[in-house]
Structures are given as C-alpha cells and as structure tokens.
Write a structure and sequence with these properties.
The chain is built from eleven helices and twelve strands. With 251 residues, the chain is of the alpha/beta class.
Length: 251
C-alpha cells in the first residue's frame, strides 16, 4: 500500500478541515511547497493535493500554490478540487500533475470522466466522498442519494486509475477510518481503492492494510501534522505484508 500524505489548500495555505466544514480549518503550514518537500524528504512516494477553495467554487483557486508544489518536488502528485472540465484537466496534466481526481464531475458529468480517461489513460482518478455511504459533491456541501459503490461501478469499464474513497464524517476528526465500508467498496469493484478519512494512528493503518481487501493506498493528513503518526513508521507499516488476511465487518 502507498501512503499519500495530504496537502489541502485554502487561501494558499496548507490546512485541514474538520469533517469537511470550511469554517473549521486549522492552518498547518503557510508554505505548502515546503511541506511537500518535507514529505518527499521523509520518503513519501506520492502526494495527495486538494484545492479546497476550488472544490467550493467549482474552479481552480490555488494555482500558485499548486505550481510551487509541482516545481519543488519530483515525486508524483495527484490533484483534486474544482476540476470540472476537460480544459482544466489537460492544463494540470501538462503542468506536471501525474493524476487528476474528478469528484463532483463523476456524479454530475460522467461523460467527462470517460473522455478524460480516453485522453489520458491511467492518469484519471475519481473521488468518492460519502456520508453514511451516500455521495456528497461540490466541496461536500451537496448531499446526493447516489451510493458510493453504485457510482464506482459506473466507471469500471473506463480505465479509471483509482477510486479515492473518503468517509466525510471521519475526515479530519481523528476518529479512525471507516474500514468496513472501505473494504466493502474495494471488494465490490475492480478499480484500485485508496482509503481516506479519519486515520489517527499506526493501528488504523494496520487495520486498513490487514482488512482483507486489496487496498491500493491510504491518505493521511491531520494525524501526520499533529505528530500522532510518525511518517517513517507509517511508511514502513504500509510497506509490510499483512500478517494474515481477515474479513472486516461493520461500518
């Protein structure tokens, strides 16, 4: 499994939101590119970057900070937030983003996802952000009745590189990931699934690693910034093979 340290951008700064609430943001670094360099120097293989202002506005809003990150690190970057048209997808890919994440667009404009996958095979992911298993869009403000698994299955024939599954009620709350729902989603689709939301400890990472589903990775944010997780230990945990395979139940 790959550990994706998260850099969430608001007003050009690196922040974390509590359960997706834009009014509950904690600033962790005013210089996101420096934070990205720290992650790379620690041995991280990927970065997960989200333009939070872009997600709320429906268009990119932290271009300068994102470009600084791309200019600073050599490891691949996956980027989401406010990317809702083909022109924006092409622009970010041309600027060096390795993987573009489409969230709201996957619900509101699924044909865009299909066109993007044809344009850039292996470089498009879908972000599925859910409360109680139902997808939320537009920066988690709009709640839909679409099920997370139902949405993921729509794109199994498109060549989507990954599904990034975020349990909104866990995100930024250090309440532990929703291992059951994440494992169930991964078992239901052929697309690689990356877990996100609520990771608070090394034991949470171990639970995801050992959940019985073949997860592609895990995204961690606040726990890293608050030093609840030692980054090098976390990388080692996810690189280690699961000692046993077990079935996880519940949510």
């Amino acid at each position: 499994m790959i550990l994706f340290p998260a850099i969430d951008l608001r007003n050009g700064r690196c922040v974390r939101l509590l359960r997706g609430d834009k009014d509950q943001a904690t600033v962790y670094n005013a210089l996101p590119a420096e934070q990205a360099r720290e992650f790379e120097n620690a041995g991280c293989e990927w970065l997960h970057v989200v333009d939070l202002d872009g997600a709320f506005a429906g268009r990119p809003a932290n271009d300068a900070a994102i470009r600084d990150i791309l200019d600073t690190v050599s490891i691949p970057v996956q980027l989401g937030g406010g990317i809702r048209d083909l022109e924006t997808i092409e622009r970010w890919l041309s600027l060096g983003v390795s993987r573009v994440i489409l969230g709201t667009a996957s619900v509101e404009n699924p044909e865009l996802v299909r066109r993007a996958c044809r344009l850039a095979p292996g470089r498009i992911a879908i972000g599925i952000d859910a409360r109680s298993g139902k997808v939320a869009t537009r920066g988690w403000v709009m709640q839909t009745v679409v099920g997370a698994t139902e949405l993921a299955r729509q794109f199994e024939d498109t060549g989507v590189a990954a599904v990034i599954y975020t349990d909104i009620d866990r995100d930024g709350a250090l309440a532990g990931p929703n291992v059951g729902r994440t494992a169930a989603l991964a078992d239901s689709v052929a697309i690689p699934v990356i877990a996100s939301g609520g990771i608070a400890s090394l034991s949470d990472l171990e639970a995801l690693r050992d959940c019985g589903a073949e997860l592609a990775g895990a995204i961690a944010g606040r726990a890293i910034y608050d030093r609840a997780i030692d980054l090098k230990e976390a990388l080692a945990v996810l690189k280690a093979p699961a000692p046993t395979r077990r079935t996880v139940t519940g949510c």
